[in-house]
Design brief:
291 residues, single chain, eight-stranded mixed sheet, Rossmann fold, alpha/beta, 2 domains
């Protein structure tokens, strides 16, 4: 075990696991031992990594067994829960990383495989061929089945002793951003972060009236995140979404960044660090205030 790891473990052992306590303790270590800033960064990361546990779990929805990725704080107690909804690429490395990031903020986070019905175990990267396959599976989904699977995930969370069941959060990206907008209509969802969900104003999975027609049924607060350079979501559609949210007095905020589709995902060429950093601040504020 190296020196940095030892320092991190000592800090946690001493009980300095609150943000201010950690900062003060790290500052003392740096002052006394003249550590470089990179070492302080490593200590901070090591402290964070020790606070969560991850597992592959199964969510039951009737005869369907939905694979899911669960991340939770290792500390004892009850925590609010957040459902993470995948892009068209499955519950891949990026979605697992987001799930872990949320858990490190003090939430139980779970990412159910919303392609379980179409392609169990599916996850892929971001090549043109990957995108083609992911879109094919997306076209096979229906709004009713997606909502049923998310409701089953909520029921699963309610049965966990370490989950607060007074209200749940939801965050989704790409197709998952569209599905998150749908999920916001479920009574248990109190906070939704919808990232660049294409088609909200023009269609719904499986056909029928566009998802935007369900806006009046949204129960909690919704934050929408969009890129002004996103060719798949014209700004006129973002305007339409914002108008509908205002029309029905839905608690909401819409954030627009000078960025492309997928700007939050650091595995993609369209990643925009500045936009992603600000969006993450807004997401943390949303969940902190509403859950």
């Amino acid at each position: 075990m190296d020196f940095v790891s030892i320092c991190a473990r000592l800090i946690i052992f001493k009980g300095f696991n609150q943000e201010q306590g950690c900062k003060e303790t790290v500052d003392r270590i740096r002052s006394c031992l003249n550590l470089k800033s990179v070492d302080i960064y490593k200590i901070t990361i090591a402290m964070t990594e020790l606070t969560i546990h991850t597992a592959k779990v199964t969510v039951t929805n009737g005869d369907l067994q939905i694979a899911a990725y669960l991340a939770q704080p290792t500390a004892k107690g009850q925590f609010p829960a957040v459902i993470v909804i995948q892009e068209i690429f499955g519950v891949n490395a990026h979605i697992r990383e987001v799930t872990e990031r949320i858990a490190k903020e003090g939430y139980v986070a779970i990412a159910p495989a919303i392609y379980q019905r179409q392609a169990p175990g599916f996850e892929t990267g971001y090549t043109p061929e990957d995108i083609k396959i992911g879109r094919q599976y997306k076209e096979q989904t229906t709004a009713s089945e997606l909502l049923s699977d998310i409701q089953a995930t909520i029921s699963y969370l309610k049965n966990l002793s370490f989950v607060k069941s007074t209200g749940f959060g939801c965050i989704g990206f790409c197709f998952g951003g569209h599905v998150a907008y749908l999920a916001a209509t479920l009574p248990d969802i109190k906070a939704t972060a919808s990232f660049y969900g294409a088609g909200i104003a023009t269609m719904t999975p499986g056909g029928g009236d566009p998802t935007i027609a369900r806006t009046a049924d949204i129960k909690g607060t919704l934050y929408g995140f969009f890129g002004t350079q996103d060719a798949s979501i014209p700004q006129e559609q973002v305007d339409q979404i914002e108008t509908e949210l205002q029309k029905y007095n839905i608690s909401h905020q819409i954030f627009r960044y000078n960025a492309e589709h997928g700007f939050f995902c650091d595995h993609r060429g369209s990643y925009n660090a500045t936009a992603a950093a600000d969006a993450w601040i807004q997401v943390k504020q949303l969940f902190s205030e509403q859950l």
